[in-house]
Amino acid sequence: MSSELTRRNFLGTAGTVAAAGAAASAAVAAGAAEQSKGKKIRILGICGSPRKGKTTATSLEVCLKAAQEVSDRIEVELVELAGMKINGSLAAGIEPEPGEVDDFPGLLPKLSDPQVGGIIIGTPVYFGDMTSLCKAFLERCIVLRKADTWTNKAAGVLAVGGARNGGQELTIQSVQAVLFCHQMLLVGDGKPSGHRGATLWSGCPGGIENDEFGMSTAQNLGRRVAEVALLAAG
What we know:
Shape: globular
Mean pLDDT: 88
Radius of gyration: 23 Å
Strand content: 15-25%
Number of domains: 2
Order of helices and strands: HEHEHEHHEHEEH
CATH superfamily of the largest domain: Flavodoxin domain
Largest sheet: 6 strands, parallel
CATH architecture of the largest domain: 3-Layer(aba) Sandwich
Low-confidence stretches: 1-5, 13-35
CATH topology of the largest domain: Rossmann fold
Structural class: alpha/beta
Number of strands: 6
CATH class of the largest domain: Alpha Beta
């Protein structure tokens, strides 16, 4: 009887301790959620097209607009790499040539801002893959990977091809492979289309704005990235 009582007392004490621990964890989580509640979350759209203001930028603007409409906490910004000098080789530790222009360091404050909760990479399709400018940019982002800057940030990919089935999904997968290395929370374009990402057709008669299916995937992707960014932020 004595040993049984002792055992019951022990189990009761253990249960009390476990309950107290669970309550404390819940309180900490609730406090963190309350602290983050209402804070702005920025989603960056990175346009890897060498042509400024063209179809990829237009598609990203539609994507970002849809993201912004999800919540008044969401802020968006389009960053176009067109015209920038970004040498991917410098990611390997190679010293730049004397006088070589390097625009990537100027992007780092924006890319590493703690307020950024989501990244959407947009690129045209060149021979079934991303542009060399987009690839160079992603290679230079190795500094962010080493610092875990984008870990647990929401991420999506948008690709614009010259044909309806012009390698958009291959290109999306290629960019996603890089973002996986950053331990990002990758999402597709969400329902109702629900595929790997936004796939648009620049050769659509009347312009890319008339690509109804492609534009719907861009909107779905923007919404999905915003939703996951909000969840990740608490």
